[in-house]
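Before drawing any conclusions, I needed to go through one protein's amino acid sequence and its backbone structure tokens, quoted below without any editing.
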Amino acid sequence: MTSEFPAAPDVRLLPEGSVIAVAGAGGPAGQAAVARLTKAGAIVEAADANQDRLDASVALAADARAYGKLVDLTDPADTRRWAEEVERRHGRIDGLVHLVGGWRGGKVFADNTLEDWDFLHKLLIRTVQNTSLAFHDALARAPHGRFVLISATAAGKPTAGNAGYAAAKAAAEAWTLAMADSFRKARTVGTPREDGDAVASDGPAAAILVVKALVWDALRAEKPDAKFPGYTDVADLAEEIAALWDRPNDDVNGKRLCLTQ
């Protein structure tokens, strides 16, 4: 996979001890993100609805830098309590990576159902709304706060049997772009970090990383004959997530960055 971003070795906006929350941390993408972000020196607050998946993700963290918590991200009060707990524990929040996923659909337009829409709305839209609202103010205060949504090419090119999924992803993208507009209006430049670091604040940002679909080692092992054309490996996705803190605000905020091959 070719990265959207050129190398920027002289820029480092993810300093040691940055606090990043990962919503939906128990899946393959979440596990890869937790491992990569903690390897970069971040402290990760991981949330998922499944304890076993969450434990597996936290176990992959470098230097035991991850905390795990069961959170119902479809519930606004539970999500806000999690955000408040994270900020209370660390005194700061530098990022929120949204990795809550789910799919329903079919082959023809008639396969789309309102029951499937309710399921997709709950997982793909409501969790974005809850996390963005709960973490917005803390991210806005961070020198280089980042909200990261993982979306799909289907949002821009829906197919007949994929109406509900595509519509939900498109709605989640629109919500994220509205958050980016809020960050743009609140942006302050030149605010020094509290620890005296010479790197100045470039303000918060909300970005969308777009994939066709994701693939990981276990999935390849299950389907050894599959080619997975245009799919993004979760390890590559994790690299791109981490890179968002090493790019200036203008390269990130309100951007829809495509990672497909």
